Amino acid sequence: MSITKEDILKKYFGYDSFRPQQAEIIDTVMRNEDCLVLMPTGGGKSVCFQIPALLRPGLTVVISPLIALMKDQVETLKGNGIEAAYLNSTLSFSEQDHIMWRAKIGELKLLYIAPERLFSGNTFDFLREWNVNLFAVDESHCISSWGHDFRPEYRQLNLIKQRFPKVPVIALTATADRVTRRDILKQLGIEHAETFVASFNRPNLSLSVLPGRQRLPQIQRFIKKREGQSGIIYCLSRKNTETVANSLNKAGLSAAHYHAGLPAETRSRVQEEFLRDDVQIIVATVAFGMGIDKSNVRWVIHYNLPSNVESFYQEIGRAGRDGTPSDTVLFYSYMDIITRQEMINNSEQSDEQKELLHAKLNRMKQYAEADICRRRILLSYFNEAVEQDCGNCDVCQNPRTRFDATVIAQKALSAITRTNEKIAMSMLIDILRGSQNRSILQHGYDRLPTFGVGRDLRTDEWAEYIGQLLNSGAMDIAYDEGHAFKLNPFSKQILRGERKIELVKFIPLAERKAREEEL
Ligand code: ADP
Ligand code: ZN
């Protein structure tokens, strides 16, 4: 009797059954049909091409941009008794020659290769002699300029179908919205490919967003409630990873920092320590986590707002891979949006690309400012319809209400006018709340008619509502003038009473229910 895909799953990978979609995908590939696989990180994409590679005669070529991960992936396969190798710039020329020779004499089942390596020299021409029977394009969203990680060298992959029309192509990605999906198929020349979309829902992950103020004390309380549990804190800047890790260590917690600027030995040591549970918390930039297969990460905190929903989803997806309840927290403030916008504006991208990045950032903002179930927003991004509210996000647990905030807006806007549009957040709040601090007195702001008109709201409430006013376009901010607030036509209409504005009722932390109360 011939060997089946189930035999291979058991024999080489040690698993008894397939996860949803895996078997169908493998069957499709075995019928020589092209396909596109969308599965969240950790969903089990690899076996979808590794098992066909073992069932078919000849070689499977796996194209991946993640050079740093190839070695590990190949070592794991070899450890399972599979003839695999990789070709990339980290190998010496003689090592590369040896591998190409092994491919030629048919000794290899899987060959991992980076796209730039595939198209350098005459490697692509050698493929003809290697009896290639399947192409797997991993991280295939990199081929699309609509994706969040476009890599121009991926564009040459259109040559695959042109040169090898009979060899099936399996494209895989964890992150592709509808436009990107269509573009992947088009760019690879596999428009008729069947698309498999595994569910992106991870019901065991709780979702919450907290106002981005006094993040460190909040984080410390959060961690202390979760003694010994592994977690990851994502920060925007390298420097911040170190600052946050140091402060956690000072508070008696076990934390290490990680970013791409650290020496390779340090990075792999930190990673090892985390995997072995010798260190409890990793404070890292987004450089951390790719290819890390740790099942018992119990929480992920975003210290800063990610640049898009795809990245956010991938990063929170590193928690709770074992299916056990795990928590995710995003800190959010209007300054994070501004920082991200500035990063896009100052980048070297084309105008068209900038527009796309802004649109993607906007979707992330919608998630952060949601007043409906956050999981619905997240899954709708991946074109997955959800019938019911999830019950496991902070909005479900603390339903938001909107209220007429025209008077609040008028107070803030008139304080901005009276100070000639020169003040930023903290000064504005001080004026509204009537603080008698030195700077206020120096400027004579205590003599303004608006001084103290907002005493009825606490500082955190004002900060929240002003952030909401900004984000809803009721006022502007001048990045180049110390982030001073400015009026726009919408603000003037509100001030004149010609337009009303609604805001989402702020619920102080202490009054929030369930998980968040633990923070
Ligand atoms: P992805 O590439 O989608 O991020 P991987 O292919 O690395 O995910 O798989 C994630 C983990 O799930 C790996 O440890 C893998 O061995 C495991 N896995 C894959 N398929 C199965 C299965 N059918 N049953 C149990 N575990 C599986
Ligand atoms: Zn919900």
TrEMBL record:
Q: Which is a GO BP term held by this UniProt record?
A: DNA recombination
Q: Which cofactor does it need?
A: Zn(2+); Mg(2+)
Recorded superkingdom: Bacteria
Q: Which UniProt keywords apply?
A: ATP-binding, DNA damage, DNA recombination, DNA repair, DNA-binding, Helicase, Hydrolase, Isomerase, Metal-binding, Nucleotide-binding, Zinc
- Domain (Helicase C-terminal): residue spans on this chain: 218-365
Q: Which GO terms describe its molecular function?
A: 3'-5' DNA helicase activity; ATP binding; DNA binding; four-way junction helicase activity; hydrolase activity; metal ion binding
Presence of the UniProt keyword Iron in the record: no
- The protein's Enzyme Commission number: 5.6.2.4
Q: Locate the Helicase ATP-binding domain: which residues?
A: 26-194
GO CC terms on record? Answer: bacterial nucleoid; cytoplasm; replisome
Q: Does the keyword Hydrolase apply?
A: yes
Q: Which reaction does it catalyse?
A: Couples ATP hydrolysis with the unwinding of duplex DNA by translocating in the 3'-5' direction
Q: Which family does it belong to?
A: Belongs to the helicase family. RecQ subfamily.
Identification of the protein by name: DNA helicase RecQ
Q: Name the source organism.
A: Dyadobacter luteus
**UniProt lineage:** Bacteria, Pseudomonadati, Bacteroidota, Cytophagia, Cytophagales
